[in-house]
Amino acid sequence: MHILLLGSTGRVGSQVLKLAVEDGHDVTVLVRSKERLEVKEGITIVEGDVLNASKLDEAAREADVIVSALSTDKTTTLSESTPLIIDTMKKHNIKRIVTVGTAGILTSKTSKELFRYESPKSKRKTTRAAEEHRSVYEAFLTSNLDWTIVCPTYLPDGEAIGNYRIEENVLPEEGKKISVGDTAHFVYHELLKGEHLQKRVGLAY
Q1: CA-based nearest residue to 106, from 185, 166, 63
Q2: How many CB atoms lie within 10 A of CB 35?
Q3: Residues in Cβ contact with 26 at an 8 Å cutoff, skipping those fewer than 6 apart
Q4: What residue segments make up the domains of the chain, in order of their start?
Q5: Closest CA to 94 of 3, 159, 24
Q6: Residue 17 scores a pLDDT above 80
């Protein structure tokens, strides 16, 4: 499998990169600076910005699947890059993508017509990041692609232990946190297995 990984220098993306390389997959990363990569050997590195359509096209040419672990990082990168990613996938006949979202865009269990971040019970001080992730979800809803959006709750650093709960479209009951390591573990597992196509997946201990 040839994987295009976006967000490979981030907390989750860097862990997904290690898992994919350890398993012997061909991996291409699109990064603004290769100096920030934790893994540099055995991968194809394309230096550039995800908002640069020509660089994204170059990085996707050999890809079978895409993983996007791009963060909001107080920017509009997600909402701006998603249409470019979708166009690139269609151009190169790539059907499968797994992205990392946020639990805020899962369905509220108390108000089914709302996202969790819109719920009166939400404790978010700002909704900007959740709204960026929502834009990704809404774009993929109309794309006809085989997408999965992995939606972890509070995300502290930590290794994978492999013992976590998942639930489609909502957060597991009383889910409070999930480590970076286990989030990467599930993203990678879902990429290989494709068990939750066209679904958001809530992830928590």
Answers
A1: 166
A2: 9
A3: 1, 2, 3, 44, 62
A4: 2-204
A5: 3
A6: yes
Superfamily of domain 2-204: NAD(P)-binding Rossmann-like Domain (3.40.50.720)
pLDDT tens digits, one per residue of 110-152: 989 999 999 887 777 789 999 999 999 999 999 999 999 999 9
Q: Is 2 helix (H, G, I), strand (E, B) or coil?
A: strand
Minimal CA–CA distance to 81: which of 27, 89, 38?
Answer: 89
d(Cα 124, Cα 115) in Å, to the nearest integer? 12
Q: Among residues of the chain, what percentage have pLDDT more than 70?
A: 100
For every residue of 77-118, DSSP letters joined together read HHHHHHHHHHHHHHHTT--EEEEE--GGGSBPSS-TTSBGGG
